[in-house]
Automatic annotation (TrEMBL):
This is FAD-dependent tricarballylate dehydrogenase TcuA. It comes from the Bacteria. Residues 6-432 form the FAD-dependent oxidoreductase 2 FAD-binding domain. Pfam families: FAD_binding_2. Keywords: FAD, Flavoprotein, Oxidoreductase, Plasmid. It comes from Pseudorhodobacter turbinis. The keyword Nucleotide-binding does not apply. The keyword Oxidoreductase applies. One of its GO terms (molecular function) is oxidoreductase activity. Its cofactor is FAD.
Length: 460
């Protein structure tokens, strides 16, 4: 640990690994400081399944074309315009070259899944999921001679007059110092620090479930902000989805996500609907439901489905609650059976005839109902009936470090000399609110690669 490293990479997920690969390929000596034990390496990346990619024609497993204008419009739709257009377009344009680069590093892809995750044109799915991607990258950095240290909890990034000198950390509980000529910060957001979440959101945040890694506590982020790094993003904005209420407090991962919402009626603990379940296709709307549920009493909601729709979405990791009547289902879920029956009957009465198409916007809408359901509005009438409890599941937070288009971090006196950031720690530059399926991996891959190249160039 007495060595002076060319590039110190703080973090061990997708963005960190992409940075390490690029820096090592450029000839730099690289060390990765991963806060998690080896079995839990990879941060939130090990829970991912796909990468959103621009392409002007068929590319690898991707079909047709998904060009810049459409991609950017999709991003604007979910962020409601809260994005840095320059950085967003950089991420979008560069994503096209990233997919073949990923394949060269050993990442393998498979055709997209069916049902509500049918994204064959926009998203490339990892064969074996995010953990296979992470393992492929770790194999690659090993081949390149990168040193990886696990259980390396970075406590302080030593910055003097805007210049990085080294990091103070604990390695397996013992204090250590790692010095370097450049640093790439890719240590994620602060979502696993429940006290910080509660300060941002209020006490209700303690009811949130953290579907991602428990190791992203924002220690490096706070340290950098305390030293004058310029912040970007809103601490109350995050990638938060509706997940199964039976999921563990931390690290339940993507399997706890529920894709049933578009084909269901969603009610709060008072058995009242509160939002349009059929607003848009699920990949463009799933990430708003965490915040919607978070705003309900006790931060809980319930998805109600009948036998017509139970096979219309990806199967859940936990079986749904089942009953022969709506009243019985309500009681099993801890709701008023009578109140739930009244809500469902009101919804059924507002449904209108039409043709149901589960994989596209079908215009099958309610009439005279508030809030409306504008697609996939079939009466819930066919027993048995099914229900899931929903809780907000936070993946990552959007408060982060401001960077330029070379991924260099901005401080109080302008750009820092030799400090770069990539991944969730800077994603708030592009994601002001909302989320687009697979876009977190795009940001991490694009800016991880840029940061690694730039750090190595600085050292050279």
């Amino acid at each position: 640990m007495d060595k002076l490293w060319d590039v110190v990479v703080v973090g061990g997920g997708n963005a960190a690994l992409c940075a390490a690969i690029e820096a090592a390929e450029a000839g730099a000596s690289v060390i990765i400081l991963e806060g998690a034990p080896k079995d839990y390496r990879g941060g939130n990346s090990r829970h991912t399944r796909n990468f959103r990619c621009m392409h002007q024609g068929p590319l690898s497993v991707l079909t047709d074309a998904y060009e810049e204008a459409e991609y950017y419009d999709d991003l604007l739709l979910v962020t409601k315009g809260k994005t840095d257009e320059r950085l967003a377009r950089l991420a979008i344009r560069t994503s096209e070259t990233c997919l073949p680069w990923m394949e060269r590093q050993g990442v393998r892809f498979q055709p997209s899944l069916s049902g509500t995750l049918s994204l064959s044109r926009t998203n490339a799915f990892f064969l074996g999921g995010g953990k296979a991607l992470v393992n492929a990258y770790y194999n690659r950095v090993e081949d390149l001679g990168v040193t990886v240290v696990y259980e390396a909890q970075v406590q302080h990034v030593d910055i003097e007059d805007g210049t990085f000198r080294g990091v103070d950390c604990e390695i397996a509980g013992a204090p250590a110092r790692v010095n370097g000529r450049a640093v790439v910060l890719a240590s994620g957001g602060f979502q696993a620090d429940l006290d910080w979440l509660a300060r941002a959101w209020g006490p209700a945040a303690r009811n949130f479930l953290i579907r991602g890694t428990p190791y992203n506590r924002g220690v490096v982020l706070k340290d950098m902000l305390d030293q004058g790094a310029e912040s970007v993003g809103d601490p109350t904005q995050c990638h938060a989805v509706a997940i199964d209420g039976r999921a563990p407090k931390f690290d339940g991962g993507i399997v706890t996500r529920l894709d049933c919402v578009p084909f269901s009626v969603v009610v709060n603990r008072d058995s009242q609907r509160f939002y349009n379940e059929g607003e848009d296709v699920w990949p463009k709307r799933y990430a708003i439901w965490g915040r919607l549920v978070a705003a309900q009493p006790d931060q809980v909601a319930y998805s109600i489905i009948d036998s017509q729709s139970i096979n219309a979405f990806m199967p859940s990791v936990f079986p749904p609650v089942m009953a022969d009547t709506i009243e019985e289902l309500g009681e099993k879920l801890g709701l008023s059976g009578a109140a739930l029956k009244e809500t469902i009957e009101g919804f059924n009465a507002a449904c209108r005839p039409g043709t149901f198409h589960g994989n596209e916007l079908d215009g099958l809408a309610t009439e005279g109902l508030e809030p409306p359901k504008t697609n996939w509005a079939r009466p819930i009438v066919k027993p048995p009936f099914y229900g899931y409890a929903l809780r907000p599941g936070v993946t990552f937070t959007y408060l982060g470090l401001r960077v330029d288009d070379t991924a260099r971090v901005t401080g109080t006196n302008g750009l820092m000399t030799n400090v770069w950031a990539a991944g969730e720690i800077m994603a708030g530059s592009i994601l002001g609110q909302g989320y687009l399926a697979g876009f977190g991996m795009t940001i991490g891959t694009v800016f991880g690669r840029i940061a690694g190249k730039e750090a190595a160039k600085h050292v050279a």
